[in-house]
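lol ok so funny story. i was supposed to be doing the assay writeup but got distracted and ended up predicting the structure for this chain instead. priorities right. anyway since i did it might as well share w the group, maybe its usefull for someone
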Amino acid sequence: MIELRGPWKLGYSFDVYTTSSVFIGNNQWGRPLFDSTYSPMGQLVKDFKYGQEVSKLSNILQLLIQDKDFNSYINNIDTILPVVPSNKARAFQPVYFL
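and the output, tada:
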């Protein structure tokens, strides 16, 4: 668990998303491209969100369930407030699954 500091009372993240990211150039539209390496949770979240691999949700839950720090933390909170989708036009909205 990683404590998140900001203008809120308390916040945590389970893990980092990427462990490294190297700029490799721009695509044909001028947008940057990166060669990224993901944490185990980051790879699952990436596959779930961008690959629309709903089957990854059970793997995400398994990582959470197996982590003693997460279980200790989750047992002491009353509410999880998800962030609204950043792109409401997207057909697949992963935040609603989580």
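The radius of gyration is 16 Å. Strands lie at 2-3, 12-13, 18-26, 32-38.
back to the writeup now i swear
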